[in-house]
């Protein structure tokens, strides 16, 4: 297992965090298929490239939007108040994984809840149990905040990442 330690975000981590987030989202863009039975045999490379671009567009837009909102100032978005956190796992000065959470202001169920809002793992470090350590850190933060539940942001990406 790769040695790592969990720590809070520092402004010096910004570039690596943004690169890891962008790379993590790009993993979910489906690759162009050259063996698709749905496409006619005469389908050209340009058509496949166009379809690949269209399939990846929502992911790219999400990265751009997040870069201009949450990631524009990570310290302000996640560390300026007591009700949010931004943790990362690093090894040898390299950021391997990021995870953030915020307390939900007006939860529907009336119980204090923490929302897991951002998670990305470097491809070469997936499957090594690092996410479990970060999740434990987030759960401890939730407990310290008096939250009774940790909920997922409404994205398929986080659900897929945590279930698998």
From TrEMBL:
Task: Using the record's annotation, list all stretches that form the N-acetyltransferase domain.
Answer: 4-164
One GO MF term:
N-acetyltransferase activity
Identify one Pfam family in the record: Acetyltransf_1
What are the TM regions of this chain, as residue ranges? Answer: 37-59
Q: Which PROSITE patterns does the entry link to?
A: GNAT (PS51186)
This protein's UniProt keywords:
Membrane, Transferase, Transmembrane, Transmembrane helix
Recorded protein name is Probable N-acetyltransferase CML6
* Natural source organism: Dipodomys ordii
